[in-house]
Design brief:
Number of strands: 3
Pfam families: HTH_20 (PF12840)
GO molecular function: DNA-binding transcription factor activity
Domain HTH arsR-type: 1-95
Shape: elongated
InterPro entries: ArsR-like_HTH, HTH_ArsR_DNA-bd_dom, WH-like_DNA-bd_sf, WH_DNA-bd_sf
Distance between the termini: 51 Å
CATH architecture of the domain at 3-77: Orthogonal Bundle
Oligomer: single chain
Protein name: Transcriptional regulator
CATH superfamily of the domain at 3-77: Winged helix-like DNA-binding domain superfamily/Winged helix DNA-binding domain
Amino acid sequence: MTALDTSGFDRLFQALADPYRRAFVERLSRGPASVSELAEPADVQLPAVLKHLRVLEDSGIVVSDKAGRTRTYRMRPDAFAPVRSWIDQRQSEMAAAFDRLAVLMAETPEEKDH
């Protein structure tokens, strides 16, 4: 991921930075829920819940459907793929650095204690 294509990635992290939005994500990871179901345990007014859900939707974490007067939100199956990919890349780079260190240490003779 280059600096030029990180805007969606940044939005995803910004969306998850808020504890209310993380709570909604945790709830939605167990299955779809209506706005009222999501708002019930939250300690915020319905307009604030809707704003939080809009941020989650704009970041690509959730999608919504409307049937009649009920709007239902659900997780996108691939919502965290960019984060997973970024973490996997960092782990690969760190593993390669440790492998290089191990080779260097194996090639360096040990000093004897006197």
